[in-house]
UniProtKB/TrEMBL annotation:
Its EC number is 3.2.2.31. Adenine glycosylase active on G-A mispairs. MutY also corrects error-prone DNA synthesis past GO lesions which are due to the oxidatively damaged form of guanine: 7,8-dihydro-8-oxoguanine (8-oxo-dGTP). Residues 53-204 form the HhH-GPD domain. This is Adenine DNA glycosylase. One of its GO terms (molecular function) is purine-specific mismatch base pair DNA N-glycosylase activity. InterPro entries: A/G_AdeGlyc_MutY, DNA_glycosylase, Endonuclease-III-like_CS2, Endouclease-III_FeS-bd_BS, HhH-GPD_domain, HhH_base_excis_C, HhH_motif, MIG/MutY.
Amino acid sequence: MEGQFMQTSNVQSSSQSSRFADCLLGWFDVFGRHDLPWQHPKSPYSVWVSEIMLQQTQVQTVISYFERFMLAFPTVQDLAAASQDDVLSHWAGLGYYARGRNLHKAARIIISEHDGEFPSHFDEIVSLPGIGRSTAAAILSIAFKQKYAILDGNVKRVLSRYDAIDQWPGEKQTEAKLWHRAEVLMQTERADDYTQAIMDLGATICRRSKPLCAECPVKAGCQALKADKVGAYPVSKPKTEKPTRQVVMLLALDGEQIFLQKRPQTGIWGGLWSLPQFDNEAQLSAVLPQTGEQSVLETLPEFKHSFTHYHLIIQPRMVEADAKAWALAGQWMNLSQALEMGLPAPIRKLIEKTESKHVKNGQLCKNG
Ligand code: SF4
């Protein structure tokens, strides 16, 4: 009797799963996004680059970055041959720079270990830097039409609502449950369309706020909607206060030149160019003798930049310096040249402000 029940229940769940996939694909054929730049032409390389850019960044923002990136590095060979500075300068603004660094590293591995061919096996793909299970599944399903389910932020939200899951999706056991559901619901041979469809559903219908349930192709089976509790899912992460850190940054100028240092490869803003950074004023004072003759330090207004795990208060100090007497390791470059380098977004803003002040002052002098 129990076996019979289980059989009936499995048949029901399999037919429910194929209904989910059929409804989703029917909707996708009419309303899905079919004109994204990485879909034409679609190659493992273009899908990979887009998937990495789409981690933590929305489609609308990614489009222009993707187009510029592909113009600069049209093939994996071009990307592997480029310098890290060049790659990061095309990444600057997208944030999460480890993604750009890993993309570059992975391109070099594809050249050296896979003869320049993007691998097509899960284990090979997931072992490349910067590629986790969901990204590997997206590449395999979209570019190679292999049946691998994805579980990115959008899909987690859709499934948490569809099944009315009462735990935070970031919790290990809940995530395992969601992976299982993602795989079970993928009842179709159209693996590439299914993956694009569930991403589109999450981005355009089952949105973070104000989901459009009336237009949703899978509303008939949605448990959150049935209970009239859509707003309760996905369950939020238990709150913890983000810590705040303070740093002092040195903005050294010699005429139109600015002094920058390359940050270490690991840690925040790894591999990008930035201003010399100090934990406190005392640390800055200790290195000032190495900067030769300079005018008095000017205190610029501090500002806050927030990372996923903490807030950073940046206290800029500006100094008129003499590049020839300078003994700190790093590089002097023109303000305009500096703005072409891979810079962290808040540092770019600060340099832009400095540059525009310079231009104004220059004009004032000329006019004067
Ligand atoms: S019915 Fe609403 S909450 Fe449920 S999956 Fe569709 S859009 Fe999301």
